[in-house]
Amino acid sequence: MTDVSSTSSLLAVDDRTRRRNAAEKRFRVYGVIAIVLAMLALAGLMTSILTNGLSAFKQTFVTLEVYLDPAKLDKDGSGDLEKIRKVSTFGYAPLIRNTLQTHLDAPNMAVDDLSAKDAVKMISNESAAEMRRFVLANPDMIGETVSFKFLASGRVDGYYKGRVTMESAERDSNISPQQLMFADKLKDAGLLETSFNWGFLTRADASENRPEAAGLGVAILGSLYMMAVVLCLTLPIGVAASIYLEEFAPKNWFTDIVEVNISNLAAVPSIVFGILGLAIFINFAGLPQSAPIVGGLVLTLMTLPTIIISTRASLKAVPPSIRDAALGVGASKMQAVFHHVLPLAAPGILTGTIIGLAQALGETAPLLLIGMVAFVREFPGAPPEGLFDPAAALPVQVYNWTQRADPAFAERASGAIIVLLVFLLFMNAIAIILRRRFERRW
Amino acid sequence: MSAGLVILAVVAIATVGFFVGRAKSLSSAGGDIRQLHSLPSYYGQATFLFAAVPALLVTFAWLILQPMFVASQISGMIVSGDIVEGASRTLVMADVRRIANGLDVAVTAGKLSETGIEKLNTASTDVRALLAGVGVAVASDVQQNILAAAKEFRTLTSTLRIAMAVVAIALSVLGLVVALTRIKPEYRARNVSEQAVKALLILSSLVAILTTVGIIASLVFETLHFFQLYPAKDFFFNLTWNPQFTGGSDLGFIPLLWGTLYVSFVALVFAVPIGLFVAVYLSEYATNRVRSIVKPAVEILAGIPTIVYGLFALITVGPLLRDYFAQPLGLGQSSSSVLTAGIVMGIMLIPFVSSLSDDVINAVPQAMRDGSYGLGATQSETVKQVILPAALPGIVGAILLAASRAIGETMIVVMGAGAAAKLSLNPLEAMTTITVKIVSQLTGDTEFASPETLVAFALGLSLFVITLGLNVLALYIVRKYREQYE
User: Fold this and answer.
1) Given an 8 Å threshold on Cβ–Cβ distance, is A257 in contact with B209?
2) In B, which residues are within 8 Å of A304 by CB distance?
3) Contact status of A46 with chain B (Cβ, < 8 Å)
4) Which residues in chain B are closer than 8 Å to A369, comparing Cβ atoms?
5) Are residues B430 and B284 part of one domain?
6) If we measure between CA atoms, which residue out of B260, B274, B264, B209 comes closest to residue B401?
7) Which of B205, B411, B439 sits opposite A258 (nearest CB)?
8) Are B277 and B159 within one domain?
9) B478, pLDDT greater than 80
């Protein structure tokens, strides 16, 4: 090693020490770089989702005064609801066109080469159906002029969000620069505005060519149903299994098998649970496809190991002296567990359950296999029958929207992710608060 | 009487039993609670169990067996002439069930009376139109024979339903009476009730085993079915994957396995160094303040659902790599590629590697560090020459677990890796994985007789075996290592 006869002082840094110190510094820098990279990845992920998705919460609306022409809607003036019902959504489109024509005829509003027929295309296809629903609900309004707040079409909406420009409209068959110019004029006249889009949270999914009307309502409800199923099944089963394994199970081969099983199940890829659901619940048991009950059952089996593991940890954390004291005053083993150990472990169990539920809420792959990708426009009914109706789920809705061609759906998908992350944040916050507030350290 | 009502009735009887049993135990001891073996409510619980459990068990068994019994009875009534060309017996049975159901609906809607059904004849009435009138659609015109079968189905079902209700309620009352006669002060009611609770606990812990059995059974069964239609040798050794829904497809497993391993490898190349350095820095260098900020932040990455990573790959990382690497270098045109999926999956695995390694590094005894510092080693020399070698088995275990996660990951590769099965080395090309193909073969309208659909089960079984093997190996290594320092 160091030459004994060397004359270097201990206080002067020699070459070798310098090299070692440099290596030390380098190593630390690698560590810092690794942390910075990980943080950058997190930041990149979040900014990507937020910048792409926040605009989904805003939507462009056009407010139009529409004259509900009795000549079109109620030809014989009888006011008979059955006859009004016969007028399809196609019968309502001309009414919107008439209103737009009056706007086009107004001074300073006209745009060259833009007919009212083209201008109608700036309003969502959904509008006629919306009007029809309104008229069927209020048949006595026929003959009046009613102010409607219509959704603007996806392209017009994209124009105000920067997705569509005059140049791209040039090449787009669904929108023309003239229409955009007219939109600008409507905006100046105060008829077109961008405001918060509650419909994104409450509407059902919409078809390929009307992204502006697509919402998360069915998906949120479907996810809620599934979480209810998961909670009702995993909590009792998971807690019961953990109590048996932690407090009662004798040390034998059977217990060993169960334990090994649970730790292996926790690591089985989620898609395998989807295959299980498809083969057992749908093909064998004959449950309906894309129903929240099947999704809930599959997610239950998936979260069960997680919940058993965390419940066992919190049961283990209760000191044995509690059990001994209970047994000492004459409680049976069952009474000691249910009256003393379980209440003390409850905050930990609840925390674990909420985290397990959060995991289940974000799970996508198994739901793809049990038909949750289907296009669902109808809201499922009230439980318990509603659990068997087709529904969507939040993460699957995201996947669904990414598979569609219109870029407006990419924005919606990111927006849906934000909704999903808000739910997860909320659940995790509850878990953390529970842990902080109620968990006892022994 | 519907099944739900029967169950409700049984529960109601049992609840009454609870209160009667509790009251009877007290009166049997002459109102002196100290004379009783157990607390009064345990006598109530025991009575409840006697009244409810046997009756409910019989009800559930009945509900499962009744359709099978009815089907076998009705099946005899259908002669082979009734089975239309191209249909099968099960289809005819489904028709019978639907017509019977339609008749029920017609009765509740008031369009038919029970005597009307007796007289119903296909010659005089258009049964199909009648059923369509109450909202039940039947595929073809109803034949006399099938209508007769449907009528028989209805009567048999309703008779059996009534029989079930009678048997269940009788059993429940019988249980109640037996339990009540047994109530004496010395009756060990608590033991009865606790045995029942314990049985329930054991049943719950069996769910985990049942799940595993279900997974293995469904995978193995359908895989064997697949190998009857498609030779196993071709599945394992064919180098092309080209499913044709018209038949004559190549279903080689190798290209998918290659894609899976390649994507996982790229992911680990990103995740292992970063995760390891994060773990080392956090456990050896970081101040408490830094640790308390960075550790939760890294764990946020672990809590984010994989669909979010998938979307990140699809709309951000993929286009970025295509525009700045693949196209300028002329290596590829698609935004989905092995590198895209690999990088994003690497990000997902960072917290996995770092938190597992953190645990392992913290488990290395402080005395080993102190010994190394005492000999004059710097911190980095201690890490490299003492801590990492000591923690190596645990770290290898962590990496294996991460690899198993990467292989089983679905959403990131579905949205980021592409759908073309290829055997290529270019990381900027789109490739596909086992999980992607399971999803694509099993979503949409699937028919469970074609090898193109059933191959998904063979793929699922391979995936299950690979990940299980990695997990078992990893747990074995970690456990072995842990024993060393405990």
Assistant:
1) yes
2) 207-208, 211
3) no
4) 438-439, 442-443
5) yes
6) B264
7) B205
8) no
9) no
| Tokens of residue A268, six digits | 């089985």
State pLDDT tens for residues A355-398. Answer: 999 999 999 999 999 888 888 888 888 877 888 888 899 999 99
CA–CA separation, A19 and A432 (whole Å): 46
B192 lies in a domain?
A: no
* A200 within some domain: yes
For the segment A42-48, the average pLDDT, to the nearest whole number, is 93
Closest alpha carbon to A123 in A216, A200, A212: A212
pTM of the complete model: 0.87
Does residue B195 belong to any structural domain of this protein?
Answer: no
A194 and A230 together in one domain: no
| Boundaries of domain holding A284 | 217-438
Q: A152 and A91, same structural domain?
A: yes
The beta strand positions in B168-289, using DSSP E, are 241-242, 250-251
Q: Is A82 a domain residue? A: yes
Please answer yes or no on whether B305 and A420 come within 8 Å at the CB atom: yes
ipTM beyond cut 0.85:
yes
B85: pLDDT confidence band, cut at 50, 70 and 90? Answer: low
- pLDDT tens for residues A228-253? 999 999 999 999 999 999 999 888 88
Does residue B200 form part of some domain?
A: no
Percent residues over pLDDT 90 in chain A: 40
Interface contact A421, partner B, CB < 8 A: yes
Is the same domain home to B422 and B346? yes
Query: In the prediction, which pLDDT does B425 show?
Result: 86
* Sole residue written with tokens 């900014």: A47
CA distance B45 to chain A (A): 14
Amino acid in the structure at residue B57: L
Interface check A327 vs B, CB under 8 A:
no
**Spatial distance between the Cα atoms of B483 and B486, rounded to a whole number of angstroms:** 5
Structurally, chain A folds into a number of domains equal to 2
Instruction: State whether residue A339 sits within 8 Å of chain B by CB.
Output: no
Closest Cα in chain A, distance from residue B310 (Å): 9
Count up the domains in chain B and report the number: 2
Determine the distance from the C-alpha atom of residue B217 to the mean position of all C-alpha atoms in its chain, rounded to a whole number: 13
